[in-house]
């Protein structure tokens, strides 16, 4: 049976999903930008599930490709903030009232991405986030893969409460530092570590651009969900794979 481009992509359904509440001409941009981010996050979650499965199977070269793709997705999401910054403070305030208490802070997919990467100190309102929090994170699986490869990994990193926030471990840092001191011996893990750092950096860059965009549009006002610039600033130092950053000081 013949299939058209529009049918394959379900374009009528997709186009019907933009439903502005106000008559302000900038509200469609606000909706489309956030919906696009949600679509990219959906794809990112799909890719992260692939990365976790490949890590569990010790198929590290295939993990590199998947992590590189997630980093690129994150970069595209970061660039999309530039489009939103063409909307001025005055533009936004003219339709902000129709948003009510809705906020990106409530995004189940964003929280799921955070939890899958290793950030487990935030809210877990949605079903995807709660399910992901019961499983090892990307960092947990990387540490377990490293142990199976022969890296001296502390037991506390291999059998912890997965749902609990991760606490950086000097033993984990020492183990990964071994990789960086002799990358030829540990080349597969060295490559994995660098792909993880790429992803962490891409995520941190997204956070920073989000902060700048919010600051530019609403200043230090509270956001529609009760958060704002001060909250976003507090998230900037967070790293999903902390020991991969701290070990560089000791090298």
Automatic annotation (TrEMBL):
Its EC number is 1.13.11.11. One of its GO terms (molecular function) is metal ion binding. InterPro entries: Trp/Indoleamine_2_3_dOase-like, Trp_2_3_dOase. The keyword Iron applies. Its cofactor is heme. Heme binds at residue 210. It catalyses: L-tryptophan + O2 = N-formyl-L-kynurenine. Substrate binds at residues 92, 96, 224. Homotetramer. Belongs to the tryptophan 2,3-dioxygenase family. HAMAP family: T23O. This is Tryptophan 2,3-dioxygenase.
């Amino acid at each position: 049976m013949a299939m058209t481009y529009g049918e394959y992509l379900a374009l009528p359904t997709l186009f019907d999903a933009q439903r502005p509440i106000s008559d302000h001409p900038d509200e469609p941009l606000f909706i489309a930008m956030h919906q696009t981010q949600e679509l990219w996050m959906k794809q990112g979650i799909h890719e992260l599930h692939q990365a976790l499965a490949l890590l569990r199977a010790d198929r590290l070269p295939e993990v590199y490709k998947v992590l590189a793709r997630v980093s690129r997705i994150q970069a595209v999401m970061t660039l999309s903030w530039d489009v939103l910054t063409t909307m001025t403070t005055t533009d936004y305030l003219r339709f902000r009232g129709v948003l009510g208490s809705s906020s990106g802070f409530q995004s189940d997919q964003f929280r799921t991405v955070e939890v899958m990467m290793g950030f487990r100190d935030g809210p877990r309102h949605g079903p995807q986030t709660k399910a992901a929090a019961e499983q090892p994170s990307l960092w947990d699986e990387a540490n377990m893969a490293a142990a199976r490869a022969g890296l001296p990994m502390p037991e506390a990193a291999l059998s912890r409460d997965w749902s609990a926030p991760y606490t950086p471990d000097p033993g984990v840092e020492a183990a990964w530092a071994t990789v960086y001191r002799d990358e030829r011996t540990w080349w597969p893990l060295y490559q994995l570590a660098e792909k993880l750092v790429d992803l962490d950096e891409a995520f941190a860059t997204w956070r920073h651009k989000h902060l700048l965009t919010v600051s530019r549009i609403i200043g230090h006002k509270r956001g529609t969900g009760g958060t704002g610039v001060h909250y976003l600033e507090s998230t900037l130092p967070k790293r999903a794979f902390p020991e991969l950053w701290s070990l560089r000081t000791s090298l």
